[in-house]
Fold:
Amino acid sequence: MATEKFSTYSYLLDRTARKVKQYAQRRFNTENYDITVDQWLILKNLSSENDLNQSQLAEITEKDHPTLTRIIDLLCRKGLTERKIHPLDRRSFHIHLTDLGKNRVTEWSPKMSEIRMKAWENLTEDDYLNLKRILDTIYNNLDEENE
Structure:
């Protein structure tokens, strides 16, 4: 295949990722969730594995530390998360879902699943598997260990 055919893949990936995020944010706003897509990502990850330190959460969500700090600050102000001092290291904090945060994740999760599935309308399981294989290959090709 000619190189020109592959030259737009970054644009296509970025365009699609932006469109998915914009669609989700519009739906969040319509539902009056008062959170952003990035805030939901943090809440959802904490619901799976609560009490993470900021470095762990940054790695899981692939957010840089300043961005993650801003998101956590906002979630703390909304009463959805809190910072707890690590019991063995007073210089370290764990990020923790509050009861309100847990309730919101439980309440919002079905709607979030519906929002995510909108992108997959008219696509098959095979489409998903092929896309996943291709994206995993691109990701692994760009891994620093493969340089």
User: Anything to note?
Assistant: The longest strand covers residues 81-85. Residues 53 and 89 are 11 Å apart (CA to CA). The chain has a mean pLDDT of 89.
